[in-house]
Predict the 3D structure of the following.
Amino acid sequence: MGQLFTLACPVPLPATERVLLGHGSGGRLSADLLRDVFFKAFRSPILAQLEDQATLDVGGARLAFTTDSFVVKPLFFRGGNIGSLSVHGTVNDLAMGGAQPLYLSAGFIIEEGFEFTALRAITEAMGEAARCAGVDIVTGDTKVVEKGSGDGVFINTTGIGLVPPGLNLSAANARPGDHILLSGTLGDHGITILSEREGIGFDSLLESDSAALHTLVRDMLAVSMRIRCFRDPTRGGLASTLNEIAGRSGVGMTLSEVDIPVREEVRGACEMLGLDPLYVANEGKLVAIVPPEDSEAVLEAMLCHPLGANSARIGVVTEAHPGMVVIRTTFGTSRIVDMLAGDQLPRIC
Amino acid sequence: MGQLFTLACPVPLPATERVLLGHGSGGRLSADLLRDVFFKAFRSPILAQLEDQATLDVGGARLAFTTDSFVVKPLFFRGGNIGSLSVHGTVNDLAMGGAQPLYLSAGFIIEEGFEFTALRAITEAMGEAARCAGVDIVTGDTKVVEKGSGDGVFINTTGIGLVPPGLNLSAANARPGDHILLSGTLGDHGITILSEREGIGFDSLLESDSAALHTLVRDMLAVSMRIRCFRDPTRGGLASTLNEIAGRSGVGMTLSEVDIPVREEVRGACEMLGLDPLYVANEGKLVAIVPPEDSEAVLEAMLCHPLGANSARIGVVTEAHPGMVVIRTTFGTSRIVDMLAGDQLPRIC
């Protein structure tokens, strides 16, 4: 209802003089911050393309370049820690541009008094994740701030990848008739973090899906070089990701709720907490927009990959309702799926 | 005395289970952290080269790649703010590798409640500094943490530059007989920050030297491609920088105190506060190790550049006392200049 109202009668967001937690949510407030502050100040046409990575021509090479800071809380969670997450997150942003991830930088902001045993565990997970993903952490920096001026450790990773020739991936490429493919269950990461942070024991084996997706992307591109774009639905969830693509491409999207894979534990937790899995963060899932003629082969390639075993076709791109994502619910009704408006789950990554 | 003792009779640093402010100082504790935690975990031979930037061959291009997080306090200071500093710092790390700086990423960690007016001022200074330095901020990320979990804003910038062919710069290249050239006065940045932070009004016009040094490097390389290496003496100051080069090259160094340019205000503040300008951070100065036959021409080029007007030859590389930096004081005595041991000025950049 609220979402329908927002779309039907757009009113400006309440003016704020100060940064809110929601400005880091990956939803509408984040987009406002990007547009109103960063784009204006930096004036970079490449930045304004709003891809998850910049594509640059440097000395004859076509590079992908992307950055992410990690402030996840708690630092350790089922399925990973801030170290492994910081590698997976940036590797995935490179992979979503079709790039082969090559090199990472690592910047640490550590709070005075942080325990070395924890720092060692985090950096070792980071090194291990990097080696598994075939990337090398080649440059780094460490700052220490006084107790109370940070929160344990924050990590920035920035990555360089090599984009193969002939690729033209962009969130602006979706066309009516395209299929929307999702590589697995929604919400595993977000619900795991929330459950550990709030001390809600969901009494399950649910863990973060944090993983490096570049080999999944490689296997998908091996069967179709015509894939329109890849995105990993992290902060803001699948809903925000698809809204962004729909907006950039000037197309509509219709999803089929029954086809969207969600684990029982996640569904139960979401119901209990009043959350919608479409808005919950993932760290090891991708969504791809694929021309219909290649959709079957691409889905097959996804299902054959260990990280795509629960892949599904979850919807189609439409000419109708451009810029808008609509879902057919399991009850046979339809509702609009807007971009995340406020601040659902802070410090999820 | 304490420094002499440390060198004459090296004892292990006191074991610590927790990260101290000094681990971020750029001195000996930072080096320990790098060696004991990060190198072991990441196992990257490129990282272990200990240059200020990684040099990478990617798709036929020779790239420089470097990262820095900025936590300076206060955020605004005479001569700049955290935004301009975050551009200059990373541009300079690229420049010290002889690279032409091309692209930056920007990662923000903002504390909830931070004022938009301040964020706008910071990002505008950042954009302006980038445009002046000819670099483009092409990718970014913003995270927001709860009030009390950060301190205003922290910024990570990571840079890509292009290394021209034929360059072989390394801190391991210094040879006996080489001259040590410094591009201007020491300590301006550190003393400015300290003075503003502690509310000590030194009643002067002293301001941070924060500046992009890539055109100075370019002008120096134009007269000699045989320069051994460049370094910008930031955290840990000139003393730590020269100790690092002496150690890496297995050479000694002898400095002449009378030849080292220090502003009267900085000298006075240092005397009052018990600081040594050799350990105070700079953000717009470089030191170069230059073969003696090219030294005159390189110094001339430095003096002709607006950022090198106070350049001087401050010492020589020696075969004697390898790994050790010695200074001839204005009183005619000699003393050993060790790497910064503890934690002189936290959050200086």
Q: What stands out?
A: Chain B has two domains: 52-162, 179-336.
